[in-house]
Amino acid sequence: MNHVRATAEKVTVERDTVSMYFANAALRHLTPVARERVLGELDIPESWLGVPHARMQAATFSALWLAVARELDDEFFGLGRRAMKVGSFALLCQAVLHCENLERAIKRMLRGFSVFLDDLQLSLTQEGDEARVHLRNGIADEADRRFADETLLVLIHGLMCWLAGRRIELLRVDFAHARPAHVAEYTAMFSKNLSFDAAHTVMGFDAQLLVAPVVQNSQGLQRFLQTAPQSVVLKYKNEDSWTARVRRRLRACQTAESLGDWPRFEAMAQEMGQPPTTFRRRLEAEGSRYQGIKDQLRNEWAIERLSTSTMSLDEMAAHLGFHDASAFHRAFSRWNGVQPGEYRRRRLAASEAVMAARSP
């Protein structure tokens, strides 16, 4: 199999945005009239879909998903022989809501998807310490088959995260298709451990999670469905988690003169009422580290300024708490796979292309 690591990719993947590849794939089975209607409804210029490196906000992609589903009466983008009619996902969520643990919920979920989607065979197995969701895809068209695997993995993983009340880390994903041009998206959506050209698509996660209880209820389901599919695309975010609490605390002082003045780890642990070792374990249990949370917020701040302001890179470096601009360059390149100046040039070029497309 063809293996790839996330660190080898040089494509920028922004938080809470979606590659234009997914928008194009979602629109593929609409008639020209329906496509024009959907793009007009969402104020998306046709030419924007072909802009290199252009990205779509997750909220816009979610609205696009819903609009395409309404046009086709199919929540699976017209990929299968039989439509997954609008309302099917909500019924499936209701069917798994009262399972006592994640294992039973996943098995019922996979059976449900198999009922709705004739071209896919889904199963759950356990190999040692790893639980595995298997997708065997019989869709004939190669592009449709790949997008069906991607879409189904997003749905399954997103629903798993919501049911468990936490973001579930995927240990690896083996894809049945060849390594795509948009492979960097996979590291943000699924896992850093990817392989391609497998016999069939497999998603692996910690088998200990199979006994995790389903923590949601009917009221939570209503809120979840009101924000779907965005809540599924972005996976589950527990706003009461330690990670979320740290993010809120740090964001509260983002207007300070320098983000380098953020509290040290020990001070943050004290604020949270936890001994440092306990606080570290709690963050690690959620797949987080304090330094990682700070870096993510610094990266988000830098991306916003590069996209919307003329602030110099030296000024950004100082505000972010770097000793010099070169340290900022190295960090931004490590986070995003591209230098900050090049990122700004790409965003400017994409914005100019969109403006040109909207001009009469």
From TrEMBL:
<keyword id="KW-0238">DNA-binding</keyword>
<dbReference type="InterPro" id="IPR018060">
    <property type="entry name" value="HTH_AraC"/>
</dbReference>
<feature type="domain" description="HTH araC/xylS-type">
    <location>
        <begin position="244"/>
        <end position="346"/>
    </location>
</feature>
<protein>
    <submittedName>
        <fullName>AraC family transcriptional regulator</fullName>
    </submittedName>
</protein>
<dbReference type="InterPro" id="IPR009057">
    <property type="entry name" value="Homeodomain-like_sf"/>
</dbReference>
<dbReference type="InterPro" id="IPR032687">
    <property type="entry name" value="AraC-type_N"/>
</dbReference>
<dbReference type="Pfam" id="PF12625">
    <property type="entry name" value="Arabinose_bd"/>
</dbReference>
<dbReference type="Pfam" id="PF12833">
    <property type="entry name" value="HTH_18"/>
</dbReference>
<keyword id="KW-0804">Transcription</keyword>
<keyword id="KW-0805">Transcription regulation</keyword>
